[in-house]
Structure formats: structure tokens, C-alpha cells
Amino acid sequence: MDNKIKSMFSPIRAWKYLMRTPVTIAKKDIFVNPREASERYRGFHQNDMTKCIGCGTCSEICPTAAINLVPVEGIVHEDGKLDERPAFDYGRCSFCGLCVDICTSDSLNMSKEYLHLSIDADSFYFMPDSSGIHKTSAKVGYTRDEISELLDLVRQEMQHEDESRRSSFIEIVKGYAALDAKNEAARCVACGICTNTCPANMHIPEYIRAVFDEDLKEGIRQIYKTNPLANVCGRICTHKCETVCAIGHRGEPVAIRWLKRYIVDNADATDYNDAAQESVTAPVNGKVAVVGSGPAGLSCAYYLRTLGYEVVVFESQALPGGVIRYGGPQYRLPEESVLKDIGVIENAGVTFKCSTKVGVDITLDELRDSFDAVFLGTGFSLSRPLKIPGYDHEDVQYAIPFLAQTRDYIREIGPMPDVAEKVTVIGGGNVAFDVARTLIRLQEIKYGKSFVQMASLEDSEHLPADLEELEEGLEEGLHGYFAYGPMAVKVEDGKIKGLEVKKVLSIFDEEGRFNPSYDEHDVKLLESSQVYMAIGQMPEYAYFNDEMRDELLTKRGQIAVTDGGQVESYPWLFAGGDIVRGPDIINGVATGHDSAKAIDNYLQSKK
Amino acid sequence: MTNSMNSYKEHFQKLLNVEIKDSPADMQLIIDVNSDKFHQTLIALRTDGFRQLSILTCIDWIELNKFQLVAILMNWDTGMHLLVRTLLDRDNPDFHTITSIYPGAIYYEREIFEFFGVHFKGNPTYDKPLFLERWDAMPPLRKDFDPQAYSDSKFPKREHPHVFKAQVVEEIK
Amino acid sequence: MKEVKLFLGPQHPGMHGNYSVHMYVDGDMINKARPTPGFLHRGFEKVMERRLWMGNLALIPRICVVEPDINEMVYAMGIEALSGIEVPERAHWIRMMVLELGRLAIHMMGLGGIGGPTGMYTATYWGIAQRDLILDLFEKLTGARIYHMYIVPGGVRKDLPENFLEDVLKVVDDLEKKLPEFEQLILKHPIIHARIKDNIMLPAEVVWELGVTGIGMRSATGVQNDLRKVKPYARYDQVEFDVPTGTYSDGLSRMNIKYAEMFQSIRIIRQIIEKMPKSGPVRAKMSTGSALRWTVPAGMVYTAVESSRGEYGYFIVSDGGEYPYRIAVRGASFAQGLLGIEKYLPGHRIDDASLWMDTMGVCSPEIDR
User: Fold this and answer.
1) Among A43, A69, A108, A44, residue whose Cα is nearest residue A249
2) CB contact B161 to A (< 8 Å)
3) What domains lie within chain B, and their CATH numbers?
């Protein structure tokens, strides 16, 4: 290894470096003519404020706690967004870009800007918008792609019963297995936007976390804080939470409803009961009557019990539950789920008086006299008729009595509804699909085949029903006539021949009023010997006297109430559910819970 | 598990007469021994070709109330790594030095004492401060040491200004 | 004569970071040396237990500033072993390229760095300038020059940018052309010879005693003890390269091996460019769900790679949760940096101390995590 050079002066060869292009940048160029960073450069952040939903996931993943979500002055609250936006502390930021990789709304990027000099340390803490740190619209640097993605955008697949399901009322959705549920729960970023949107403000991130932790007792505890109809809502909730889910901005939203269902289906029975009854105490505070045992009534009754009241629920039907007992079809909402939810409420000590119709068997005045407060949750119990020619024929049927009769039939306490071989359903909402798909099943059982047509004003892309209803309905063999308006029920020789429909051109006129226009050349006769109407429901107020009816009802047939469902002129009277907010189960649960708190306040303040 | 790994396993089983566990990595095995067998195991393995101690380290299993000492040995001829482990009582973490077997362990022992509080008898310098000069709290890699609480007790919390604008100060140019 | 206590460091005494050696000297002879780390202690191992598996990605490259990629590699390898993830083929080759570019960068710095303690700063400027061209490549590939955060559990973070391989070739061609100039300037220079030839010796017995690995070990034992050969990771078993060794370990021979290794790295990079799959996935998912809830199955594993200074390893323990339970870092230069200094620095001159640290590759941040 003795290969050293003898001459001391050989380093003079280094002088040739004088001729080479320097690697360094001249000082004057740093500001005047800065070197442009590479395409992927992880420089200062840019945040598109119109896209950002304030979910805070960037702050959660940040390994250096450099990102703080702070309120922004003058921000207008929008549903599905939180009111805070990320501010970055560049004294902490490590420029790792994990925040960019996990950004749910695609708003956050890094720029090529890498130069910020200041003697003011506080200027290194700032809230970026899309114009960059110096408002000079720096070029975009590091962005996320599908390789650097840190979210899981694809839902765990849900197993469904196959097509043979249409000949029975077996539940279609099979529910998650433990591993699927855990994997689905792992997709959640716990931002809480869902909680804000849920009418009942359910503790969604918390119970999803419980699924992830495999602690289902905690899950039950979190659910029962805001919703005692977990089994029902785990199946047929309208899941507004999933519509706003942060993951839904770039991928499929977390299957919040199925996760709730997973918890209630799989929690140990003892754990379930313990968690649900945790805050129930012996009654000490007073007595409250609840009229109607639908979602609102049940929710109100349960929370009044947890607040220490004695509660009696009056139900006109033979069984408690209202719409969840007599409405939603078995293949979506099995009887066991309803029984489980109502069982918890019964165990909590709520008394049910069934087959007792307020206004007939007992008056509202009598309730007022024997209870401290009265809650009305009577719901929409009548079907709305469509007064077209022939609508008064005896073979024109209505959704609510038909569905109720079917459920009694499946409960084996009533006869099978009289279903014809060929039928037509009018309507395009979830209830219309419930009717149509129930009809298919009854026909399969009775005739071994089915023929159900559906006519709705809206085309298939604008149906009010959920997309999955449409998909599953068509799978089961439903014949859809979407954007066909019903004109008349054609009757020949005293029997229904079919429903005459016309192609709809538009539903609303130029002023936005409901005023359908039709293509007069496209008229069809949908042959059938029965017609089912499922175009909406309305309330029944037989229990009000004339004076109350005039005073309390608004134009749309709903009761005007203050916060918490209290009726202003009758402070002992509270109302919730459909008759306050329109038909929706989770709204019913929410208003029932709110009213329970309001009744408590009212009765405490009276003492 | 390849055949060669199985034969390695048999080899160590015979050599040490203890149970050999699989490791998730290739050419790596895990050997659990009682603390009184730890030294003789190391000696046997060193003679067997494991001339290098890659690291001596410790884990705090606070829920079991145990410390686990792990010596990772390397045989350069085969490329095999062995994780030799032993459990120590967490309330009374006394052990004997392994510097007579692997002299390079001397500083690992000092490190483990500093971060976990395990005593190494026979190593005259094990309790000299190494990294943490004037440390005044419990050994920091113990699971019950809360660095956030320690930091909060030592340093004032910095309040963020609610000014979110950044400007280059011209004079610096 | 009376013994004097002298402190080497903790300021950068010829690029050795915030590390100090307390020397008891008699004249310019060192009688006793006490390594004093701790000026750089950032509590990495504790901090790692309190970060998400993915969040640690931002932290680990900072353990070794000049060669960050080895941290990402051992971390990723450990998680992949525990989780049983198959890394896509193309990712293996990209990783290998990153690691070899990293090796070139740190060797460039090490080779130039000898200019610090020997007073020949031209070497340092050349080395840093040449390294900067490699950092340009890293910036293009990863978006950052130093802390790349590019090798992630399951693969790499992004696919190669357009024309990247051509850029790599340009840089290594240029480097290969310039390397003989470095040899002329540094390795053949009479003054450097006077300083490091037959000096700061590391006999084979001492290697085993201390547990020295890497160039230190290979320069003394004459055996190709290189993890890339002995225990190939990534696709090192599919490329041809030599491991330079020696049987007489003085400072100069270690520098010569470093120099020879660079040609091997260039050789490996050329083969990678030729052999790597031209397309295909580069990342497998580490776990299910969003990164906030990624978990690693319970277990423990030790993974190691050949860094420029020897065996660099992570001992990773998971309890199945979203955070590592314990991670212990085996700094490659722990052995020579602590016990080596204490035991074998005495007997040398004061100005040999930083030469020891330089030619042995003592990297303070990996000793003092």
C-alpha cells in the first residue's frame, strides 16, 4: 500500500477546479434568483381552504405535534365540515409530509417553497391557504399519490343473501364477521364530523374505536349514551353520518351503520345488559306518560328512566314499537332486533300499556291529570292517498296497513295478506320499495313466482329511496317504471285492470313548484289486479280536542314546539319524532332524547 | 421454516438443552433461559462461533413486573443471529455482568442501568453516568416514566400566538 | 511531567458531532481517555414508543444524519418480518439503489472528512460538493435532501420519477471519473500518509474484543464480513460485487477500503439499473385501515443492515398495538466509539484522537440516540 506520491506539490492539480462550474449557489442568487426545488419537494404547506373540511387528521398523524386545528374567523359553518383549519408550527414541523399523505379531503399539499427568513419566531407559526407562506402562489411540490396513500379507501365487503332470498323474509345483510369489523373500524380517522351531523349526535368515533379495540361492552356503553334503539338503527338508519364521513371524500365512507350493528349483534348478553342499564336508577323524580311507542317514544321513555322517572308508554297497537314493529320489513329489520331493543327498555323499568289508544281509551286530559308531563310520539300512522280516478276501488291498498298485516303474518299471529299475481306499486321512496319487495316475497311464497311493477315520478337517478334499495329491488326481479306518473286506476267489470301511467318530462315547473309535465304520446297500461299506494304518510291527531288542534298544528300537519319538543302554550306537553320533524327513525331517537332532557329540566324547575 | 433452519434449531437444542423458538426473521432464533443459566449459555454459544455481541438490551414488561434482558449474538460464518433472553424481577433487578464473556458489553450494561435501572454486579463502572448527566428522575425507558409530565414539570409551556401570517423581514436579505 | 486534562469536543472537532473525549495527556501523549457522550441525547428510543408505527418514519432517519436510509431500511425490515409482508420486487431494487447512493454519499463525506483532522480542507470541499450531487438525486426521488423518509414498511413511498435512472447514471459516471482525483489528493498524499499510515491500529483480536464491525473488522481480519454478503437483504444476492478486505488495519488501509468500496457501490448501482423490473408495484400495505390505526403483530425481531460503519440494527418489540412497545438501536460504531476510545486511544497523540474517530467511523448520534 506504499503508493504515496513523492512530491509535496502534487495538490496543485486541485487548481483545475477553478475552471469547473461550482456546485454552490452565489449568495445574491438565494433571494433574487432562487434555485427551484424538485417536483416532489417537501416545502411549506399549501391548504386549499375550499376543500379542507377541518377533520384534523393531519394533526393526528403529525409525529411532531406541529399541526394545530384553530378556529377561523368569519368561517361559515357548513354541514359535513368542522369550523377549524390547520395551522402549522414550523418550529416543530419535520417536513415529513405524512399530513399530505393522509389528508382526507385532498386539500393539503406541500410546495416548492423552502425559504422563509424572519427574526420574529412567531412568524413560523401560520395557517396556510393555497397561496403559500408568502402569498406568492408557490408551485406545488410534494403531493399524495395512490402509493403514498395512508387512508384505506375501500370498504370491507358485506356479505348478502343471494337471489333466492326473494322467496323468504330472511335478513339480507349478513353482518360483519369479527375480523371484517375490526378492519372496517381501522379505516376510521375519528374526526367526529359524523357526530356533528348525526341527528342524535351519536358517539360514533368512540364506538368505532371500541370495535377496533375489541371492547364491545364499551361500544354498547357509547351507543346507549345517545341511542337506545341500537339494533334497529344498526340496520335501517338513514345514516347521514356516512354521507359526511371524511373518508367518503376520496373513497367509500366507513360503514358506520354496519359497525353499530356488529356491536349490538356480537356483544356478550350480560355485558350488553350491564352497559345499557348502567345509568338506570330507581324512580325518584316523578311520573311521565309517553304516547306512542315508536322510536321517539321509546327513546324518550328510556332516557327518562335513566334520569330517574317512572314512565308509562301508551300504545294503540297490540305490540309496542310503532314503525319498527309494524313498518320496516323483516328482511331488513328482523323481529329479534326489535325485541332486543324493546327488551332493554322494558328491563329498564318502563311500563307499556298496549292496545290503549289515547283519545279513545284514555283522554289526553286524563293523562295530564295523573302524570307530571306527557310526551307525544304518535308518528305518521296513516297512508296518504293519491286521488286519481279509480283510487277508491277496494283492491287499491295502502302501504302502512299492508306492511303491518305482513309483519303480523310473519309473527304468525295474523293471516297472509291477500296478494294478487300481478300488482303495481305507486311511489319511489324507501317505503314504496319496502312494499314492492314485500310483495315479491309474498307472491313467491303464494304462487312460486312474482310480478311486481313500480311507477314513480322520479327517474332512477333521482329516486328518493336509497340506492341499495333500487339495486336490490331490481336484483329481486322488480319491474321499474321510473319517471312514469300514475294517471288512473283502470277498472273493468268491477275489477282492476291496471294502472295507467304517462312518461314524466319534468316534475317541477320553472318556478320550482311541484307541477309535473307529461309526454302525452307515451302512455302505458301497467296490467295488474291490485294497486298499492306508497306515496307518503301523515299523522293522526284524534287525541287533540278542536281547540288544541287549531292552536298547535302548523300547515304541514306537524306540531310547532320549542327546543326540546316543549309545546309553548301547554308546558306539560312535549312532542317529538315524525310529528315534529317528519319521518326518520334517527330523528325520532334524537327528539325523544332531547325531550327527555327537556322534561327533566321542566320538572326540576317546577320543584 | 426451511430445512436448514430446522437443523440449526436441533443443533442449539442439543447444545444448550433448552427450548428454541422461531423468530419472524430468517436466520434468527430466540432462546429463553433462566437468569442463572444466562452466562453459561453465552459461553457455550461464543465457543460455538457466536463471537460477536451485537447488542445487549432490555425491555420493561411492566404488566408482568419483569425486565427482560436480551443479548443478540451474531455468528459471522453463518450469518445467524440469536436472541438470548432472560427475565428479571422488576422490583429487584440485579444481574451479573457479562463483560467477562463479551468485553464489549461494558457500555451496554452502563446504558441499561441508566435507562432501566438494572444493576450489573462485577462491572465496576455500570452505575457511572453515561448519557444522562445529572438525571433526577426514574430511569427513563421504564414504561411508568412519563416524558410529557417530566417535560411539563421542567419547562414552561409555550403559548402559540394567534397570528397566522408569515412575512420575510427584508433587512435580513 | 504533570498530567493535563483536555477536552476534545463537544463542538465539532473535525466533524464528530456533539461528542466529547476527556483526555488525560502528558505532553501530547494520551494517557487516559474517557468517552463522554450525552450532548446529543434526544431520547429516540423513548420517543419511538410514543409515536405511531408510521409516525416514527419522520423520526428515525434523524438518528444518523449523514446516512439516514439505513434507519428506514432496518425499521421497515423489522416491521415486514413481524407482519409477514411481502415487499414488491421493484421496491427491493429501489431500496437497494437508495442504500448504495447513501453509502456513496457518506463515504464521500468520510473521505473528504479526513481533511478536517489533517488540515487539508480542499478534500472536505470536494467531498461535500460531490455528495451534494447525490443529494440532488435524493431530492428528486424523495422530496428531501437529508431526511428522505422514503423507505417505508412494505416498500417505498413513491415510484421513481421520470428519467431518474438516467440522472443516477450521470451522477455515478461523474463520480467515478473524479474519484481518482480524490485518490491523488488524499490517499496518496505524503502528509496524510505521515499521519495515518502505521498509526491508529486495530488488530483483529481487538476487533473481536470490542465487537467492531464493518470496515474496521474487514480491514483487520481479511474476511468478507459484510452483511450484504453474509446475510443478504433486499436483492444483494442478485448483484455482483466484491468486498474489499485487509489484514493490516491502520488508518490508511481503512481509508483505502472506503475508497475501494465506492467503486463497488457504483458497480452495484449500474447492475440495479440494468436488472430492476421496469414496472410493477412498489409498496405493499403494512396493515389494514388508515395509518392512524396500523398495527404490527405482537413479537420481537432484530434486523440489521450493513451501514458504512458496520452492522446497524434495530431490535423491535411489538405488543400488537398501534405503537412500538420497544425499539433498541444498535449503533454501528457503539463499540469503537466507547470502549474502543477508552481502551485503545491511550498511547496515541492528541491529534490522533480525531483521526481515530474519523477512520473508524465513530458516529456520535447513533451512539447517543
Assistant:
1) A108
2) yes
3) 3-152 (3.30.460.80)
DSSP C45-107: HHHHHTS-TTGGGGTGGGGSSSSTHHHHHHHHHHHHHHHTPPPPHHHHHHHHHHHHHHHHHHH
Whether A14 and C122 lie within 8 Å, measured CB to CB: yes
Q: Do C302 and B54 touch (CB under 8 A)?
A: yes
Nearest CB partner across the interface for A39, out of C155, C161, C197 = C161
Q: CA-CA distance, A179 to A185, in Å (whole number)?
A: 10
Residue A293's pLDDT is 87
How high is the pLDDT of residue B169?
Answer: 43
Average model confidence (pLDDT) for chain A?
85
Q: Which of C183, C292, C295, C359 to mutate to test the interface with A (most CBs of A within 10 A)?
A: C292
Provide the grid cell at A457: 315520478
A1 confidence band (pLDDT: 50, 70, 90): very low
Task: Tell me which chains share at least 3 CB pairs under 8 Å with chain B.
Answer: A, C
Least confident piece of the model among A565-574, C151-160, C261-270:
A565-574
Judged by DSSP in three states, B104 sits in coil
A61–C291 C-beta distance less than 8 A: yes
CB burial of residue A354 (10 Å; 0-12, 13-18, 19+): middle
> Cell triple for residue C22?
476527556
Using the predicted structure, report yes or no on whether residue B167 has a pLDDT greater than 60: no
**Residues A181-187, mean pLDDT to the nearest whole number:** 90
* Per-residue pLDDT tens digits for C81-91: 999 999 999 99
Question: Rounded to two decimals, what is the model's pTM?
Answer: 0.85
Instruction: Point out the residue among A17, A41, A110 whose CB comes nearest to the CB of C139.
Output: A41
Query: DSSP state, A572?
Result: E
Q: Which residues of chain A have a CB within 8 Å of the CB of B165? A: 123, 126
Q: Is the pLDDT of residue C302 over 90?
A: yes
